[in-house]
Design a protein that fits this description.
The protein is α/β, with parallel strands linked by helices. 26% of the residues lie in helices and 12% in strands. The chain is globular.
């Protein structure tokens, strides 16, 4: 195998890791007819970058490592080490994490431990339906003025009909206390009679965490990330977790809230980097479906589904 081919294969094999290759000149040296080569050991030589045109065929050149991303806020817990992983105790409800091993009866030993572990195990699956509010009046100065537009009310009707058509026994609707989410909930709930509604400030819209890569058109103050981020993380911890051990049957819950909140929750639930939340886009009235199994595994069945709406009713404001 040639040296160039070996380098190409090595670069492909490490593409998912944290190693970056520095470009080096391979093979024939450039002639002296053009720009002079920097002298070995000179400052110019230290900063010289091999142009892409000089790269051997098949070798992907990665740019020099940029400045590292800002550290994640203290409420984002990440296990030490590198590479892919799945933290099975992400919601702190893994059976072993719920019992005090120091209190284990030495006489009954393993039998008692097995019994206690079984008592703490979840048995049911939770289905989480995250609904983004419908289109609203962007000109409203205060939250109370940001009511749904006529089109937004149509969108909520369509979303309500879609949820009702699923034939599921929904347990509750938890919604943001902001006007646009409350109005969306009222319209949806007409199609789901008897399902209780709960309002919470935790699901209000905000800036969850500084996005990476950043965007130029949306730059909240740093204090907004600090305040909103902690609240939205609290919403995640309160509402997104495996079923309680006492829950016997699968549950179906609806959360009506906002795009930033939903995108952050999806990243956290799937254990994707939460800084990537802004790379997703959600339509008004869309349905995102998360499934949380008894063993803590999480699956995303749909993200921002609006296939049940006519094309002329779809918006993303």
């Amino acid at each position: 195998m040639s040296f160039r081919r070996a380098l190409a294969l090595a670069a492909c094999g490490l593409a998912g890791g944290s190693v970056l290759f520095s470009a080096v000149a391979v093979g024939k040296q450039p002639g002296r007819g053009g720009d002079a080569e920097p002298r070995p050991g000179s400052a110019a030589a230290a900063t010289a970058v091999t142009p892409a045109s000089a790269a051997p065929p098949g070798l992907l050149l990665l740019p020099p490592a940029a400045a590292s991303c800002p550290p994640a806020p203290g409420w984002i817990e990440r296990p030490a080490g590198t590479g892919s992983y799945w933290d099975s105790n992400w919601d702190r409800r893994e059976p072993l994490a719920l019992i005090n091993l120091k209190k284990k009866n030495e006489e009954t030993g393993e039998e008692e431990l097995a019994s206690r572990l079984d008592h703490c195990k979840a048995k049911a699956t939770r289905h989480i339906f995250l609904i983004r509010h419908s289109q609203y009046n962007l000109d409203g100065r205060a939250d109370k003025d940001r009511t749904l537009t006529p089109l937004g009310r149509e969108q909520a009707e369509l979303t309500g009909r879609r949820l009702a058509s699923l034939g599921l026994k929904f347990d509750q609707i938890i919604h943001s206390s902001m006007t646009r989410a409350t109005e969306t909930t009222e319209i949806i709930s007409k199609h789901l009679p008897g399902v209780k509604k709960i309002s919470t400030d935790l699901l209000r819209e905000g800036a969850p965490i500084e996005p990476d890569p950043p965007v130029s058109h949306w730059k909240p103050e740093a204090v907004q990330y600090y305040e909103d981020g902690a609240r939205i993380e609290a919403a995640f911890r309160n509402f997104i977790h495996r079923a309680d051990a006492k829950q016997e049957e699968d549950s179906y819950e609806i959360f009506v809230c906002h795009a930033n909140v939903i995108r952050y929750i999806v990243c956290r639930a799937l254990q994707f980097p939460p800084e990537g939340w802004l790379r997703m886009s959600l339509n008004n009235g869309s349905i995102t479906h998360l499934v949380i199994r008894p063993n803590g595994r999480v699956a995303l069945r749909t993200l921002g589904d609006t296939g049940f709406m006519p094309p002329d009713k779809i918006t993303r404001t």
